[in-house]
Amino acid sequence: MFGFKKIKIESPYLEVPSPLSGQFVALDEIQDEAFSSRAMGEGFAILPDSGKVRAPFDGTIAHIMEKSKHAVLIEHKSGAQLLIHVGMDTVSLKGKGFTAHVANGDRVKKGQLLLEFDMEILRENGCSTVTPIVVPGGQDNVSRIEVISESKQPANETVMRVYF
């Protein structure tokens, strides 16, 4: 009729589901000052009930701690980055109990397995399994972060929104 073109409008925010199954933990409740003070960024944490970390959205692996395999930084097409840091003091394990299924630069799809970890090995070595998921500060393309769900079991639901 009028010849209007439909254009796809990108969302002004990224919805982030939990990359692990388990219980929601507010950053304030984490025993690590770098996370509880939000020096590492804004977000939430999960006390996992299984040792699998999955991509919360389609993106690119910006960085994985190759030796320790305890943390991964995933970048969305918007440029927003998300840090998934498995456990506390887990860098000291030097990769023991961790298996990486991705490498730096890999393109990943939402739900794809990124990391596996053995929760018993972490506990046996005195490491907490609580896993912070944060948007590191200083990203010019991120205007604000909103934790929108504090459901006790947030699997498959949006827990956080990252606004551009």
Summarize the structure.
This protein has helices at about 35, 120-125; strands at about 15, 20-25, 40-50, 50-55, 60-65, 70-75, 80-85, 100, 105-110, 115, 130-135, 145, 160-164. With about 160 residues, it is mainly β.
Care to describe what's here?
By secondary structure, the chain is mostly beta strands. The chain has one domain: Distorted Sandwich (Glucose Permease (Domain IIA)), CATH 2.70.70.10. It is built from two helices and 13 strands. A hairpin with a 5-residue loop joins strand 6 (71-75) and strand 7. The relative contact order is 0.27. Residues 4-9 have low confidence and may be disordered.
> Uncertain spans, ≥5 residues at pLDDT below 50?
4-9
Q: Hey, roughly how much beta strand do the residues contain?
A: 35-45%
| CATH architecture grouping | Distorted Sandwich
Total of DSSP H or I helical runs spanning 4+ residues: 2
Major sheet, described briefly?
7 strands, antiparallel
Oligomer: single chain
Cα Rg: 16 Å
State the CATH superfamily name. Answer: Glucose Permease (Domain IIA)
Instruction: Give the N-to-C terminal Cα separation.
Output: 35 Å
Annotated CATH topology: Glucose Permease (Domain IIA)
Secondary-structure element series: EEHEEEEEEEEHEEE
The first-level CATH class name:
Mainly Beta
Percentage of residues in helical conformation? under 10%
